[in-house]
# Entry
Amino acid sequence: MTRVPIQDPPAPEPPQAGRPATGVPRRSVLRGGVLAGAAAVAGWSLTACDTGPTQRQLDAETLLPHAQAALRQQRAATALAPRNTAYTEALRTVADQRGAHLKALRDEINRLHSSTADRIDSPPAAPTASVAALGVSIERSATSAADACVGLSGFSAGLLGSISASCQTLAKVQLA
# Structure
């Protein structure tokens, strides 16, 4: 019988310089660390950026005070109509027209930025004391709408231009 010499199993190779013991190349580990750090910084910086309001939101904000004025003036005309019999029909017309303006403005604001439309029904201002005071208020609304429509475009600009003309008519013809 011949004896076969028993050989010891090969010894594991010691890790080479610059290579982790797990067998993953060092460069891969470094690249992964750099990419993870860059991704974390990019993610943080993107969440910190605020792009600000959109143009639609800005347009809705421009229309908001006009809708609030229409609501106040509609309520004032409705409240004044029974107390001023000489102007009852005119005040009903004013209330109807300002109500139509309010509906159109509310619809447009809702289309542009629905959460802005929730602010239309803010608490009403002090009641309008007279027909003359309501006429002055409507004239101010006409001027304000004309000024604001210049800064808008499209349907919103046309809507405010139309409201401005209607308010001038209401103030000059109905309440004169």
